[in-house]
Every structure is written in C-alpha cells, then in structure tokens.
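Title: Comparing notes on inverse folding

I've been comparing how different people in this forum approach sequence design from structure. To keep things fair, I'm posting one structure and asking everyone to reply with a full sequence. Here's the target:
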C-alpha cells in the first residue's frame, strides 16, 4: 500500500526523491525508469491515459511510494485511493524546468527513429498518451502553454490537499524538511542528487533504454 505519493512533474528532482525515500524506508519506490522492465504495467498506464478503469492496487502492488510520471498525472486518484498517504510536490524554477524537459525527456519521447524493442515502442506510446498528449494537451512545444500547465498543477495540488498531508519540496533543501514531514530521522549521508541533464543519456542506457527511445524523468 502506498505511504508516499509524489505529485511533482518529471524533471523536478523525482529520481533524487526516489532515492531519498528508499533510504528513509519507503522502498520500493515507483518511478518511470522502472517501467522499462515491466511491459505489462505499461499497458495498464495506457488504459489509465484513455480514461479506462484501473485497479491502482494492482498497479502499485509491492510498492510503498511513487514519484514521477506516469503516477504524478493521477495524483488526485491516488490521493483518494490511499487517504493515509503523504503527498510530496516537488517543484523548481519553471523556466529551468521547461528547458530541462525540452532537452531531455521530450526530445527522447518525440524521436521517431525505429524503437530497439517492442517494449520500448509501447513505452514511447504510453509516455505520449500520459504526458505529452494528456498532461500538456499535445502542446508542450508551446512554451507559454506548458508553463501555464506547470503553474496550474502546483496550484491544484496546493488547493486540494491539507497542509498536514502535503509537503512542497525542492530537492536542494535536502533531508531536513523531508524527514520532518515523514517522521524519519535525518540520515548520516548526503542527500542524493541524480539525473542532472548531462547525466540523462547514460542514465537511460543504465536502465535498458536509449536517449531516442525512452523517457526517464528528474
């Protein structure tokens, strides 16, 4: 059963948060990169993108937390299904966020070169359906539109959830606000920082994808 729900968009520090949550005992944590090894789950997310009924307990069986897309698109449904779960909204400077997404996960997802495998082909379709056509209405390259979606998302999460259930978090803040919110002691280790823009290509290869055919997000 989910105990922590990440509502932040990809490229707001989601992979760093994943690593931090797992260090704090909320492992395993669901993240987009893990879907490269779970083709059956990719199909469930495609159903969710089409508005079909999805059994969230089936999707998240075995997980204690979730961050990043595709889950972040369905934060309302997840917050309702798991009312005891805490919600973390990762944020960052909007202009820097947009440039980061445009130069990494959007470019990778929109590449029309032949996919390396059937799993990557379906992953690419899912990413487009959930994120680019779903969240951004097919208009991510319209910078103003994408930035409005980003801002509206933050306000929607803030307006929906009570303060004692929601943490608005920038990963640069480190362990202290996260641990206080989750009731965990601060680890004797640096806060993890992973998936900077320059690391994107190597990170995808590490998880079985390529820069042209998959999408990981932080």
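Reply #1:
Here's my take.
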């Amino acid at each position: 059963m989910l105990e922590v729900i990440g509502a932040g968009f990809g490229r707001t520090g989601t992979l760093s948060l994943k690593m931090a949550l797992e260090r704090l005992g909320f492992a395993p944590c669901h993240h987009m990169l893990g879907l490269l090894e779970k083709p059956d789950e990719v199909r469930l997310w495609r159903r969710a993108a089409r508005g079909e009924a999805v059994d969230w307990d089936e999707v998240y069986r075995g997980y204690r937390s979730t961050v990043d897309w595709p889950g972040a698109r369905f934060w309302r449904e997840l917050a309702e299904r798991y009312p005891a779960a805490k919600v973390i909204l990762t944020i960052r400077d909007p202009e820097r966020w947009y440039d980061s997404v445009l130069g990494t996960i959007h470019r990778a997802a929109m590449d029309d070169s032949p996919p390396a495998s059937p799993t990557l082909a379906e992953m690419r379709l899912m990413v487009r359906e959930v994120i680019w056509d779903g969240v951004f209405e097919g208009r991510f390259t319209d910078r103003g539109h994408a930035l409005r979606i980003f801002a509206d998302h933050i306000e929607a999460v803030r307006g929906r959830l009570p303060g004692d259930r929601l943490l608005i978090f920038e990963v640069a803040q480190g362990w202290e606000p996260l641990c206080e919110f989750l009731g965990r002691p601060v680890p004797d280790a640096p806060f993890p920082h992973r998936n900077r823009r320059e690391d994107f290509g190597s990170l995808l290869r590490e998880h079985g994808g390529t820069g042209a055919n998959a999408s990981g997000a932080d």
